[in-house]
Amino acid sequence: MRKQAIQTAAREVATQLRTLEESIDTTLEELALLQSTMLHARSTARVGPHIGQQALEQVAQAVGSIVAGRGQIAEAHAFLKGTSNQVPGARELGYGDATETPDPKGSMDTLRIVA
To answer: How far apart are CA 11 and CA 8, in angstroms?
Structure first.
């Protein structure tokens, strides 16, 4: 009974974690679309680049913050995967990863924020 409760809790954590990771990526996609739409609108209106600059900077800062948060969630994912070996009953689940969890710092070096 306890093992089943642990496995259920581990599945719930894994499901919520995957949902959150997907949500963050969707948010970043939406922000990128917003940036593109803002730039296109400025071009369509044929106004100077100073128009909307502050708003564009704010959106760019939001992107940076969310990218940083994404990295923190990736690190949390790696830590959670490690805890599955410490919790009896959770070892079999591995928090739902079908493949090895990559080093959260590994690919972050190649990302750049462009606005």
So the answer is: 5
Structure tokens at 23: 């949500």
User: Is 109 in contact with 67 (CB distance < 8 Å)?
Assistant: no
Is 87 strand, coil or helix?
Answer: coil
pLDDT tens for the chain, 115 residues long, are: 788 888 888 889 999 999 999 999 999 999 999 999 999 999 999 999 999 999 999 999 999 999 999 999 999 999 998 887 777 766 655 544 555 554 555 555 555 565 5
Helices (H), the chain: 2-45, 53-83
CA quadruple 85, 88, 92, 94: dihedral sign: negative
Q: So where are the chain's domains?
A: 2-110
